[in-house]
Amino acid sequence: MAAAGAARAFGRRSRQLFDIFVAEVPWTVSSKELKEYFSQFGSVQRCQLPFDRDTGFHRRYCWIKFSTPEDVQNVLKKDSHILEGSKLTLKQQTRRRRSQRRNPRE
């Protein structure tokens, strides 16, 4: 029974994504460049860089999703992150996927 509980706990953890919110992203930086930059700290699962439909420019913030909390800690250990001359502002976030939320939207 203990093995089954451990397997379930591992399964829950593996579905969780560990996010960093990044603000002050320069206009000239693409999601590919962000993913390449942050991959030096760990395995980047996704880079979400939202765009404004009216202007066609990105909104100067993004979420970088890592697979482990250790990857996030590696990013946060560095004092400052600078891309194309701009200092990025970072904030750690831990979110659950929609399928894991207790009260899913209906």
UniProtKB/TrEMBL annotation:
Instruction: List the PROSITE patterns hit by this protein, alphabetically.
Output: RRM
A single GO molecular-function term is: RNA binding
For this protein, the record's SUPFAM superfamilies field holds:
RNA-binding domain, RBD
Q: From the UniProt entry, list the residue stretches annotated as the region Disordered.
A: 87-106
What superkingdom does the record give? Eukaryota
Q: Which InterPro entries match?
A: Nucleotide-bd_a/b_plait_sf, RBD_domain_sf, RRM_dom, SLIRP_RRM
UniProt biased composition (Basic residues): 93-106
RRM domain span: 18-104
Q: Which Pfam families match?
A: RRM_1 (PF00076)
Going by the UniProt record, its keywords in alphabetical order are: RNA-binding
Q: What is this protein called?
A: SRA stem-loop-interacting RNA-binding protein, mitochondrial isoform X1
Species this protein is from: Lepidothrix coronata
The encoding gene is SLIRP
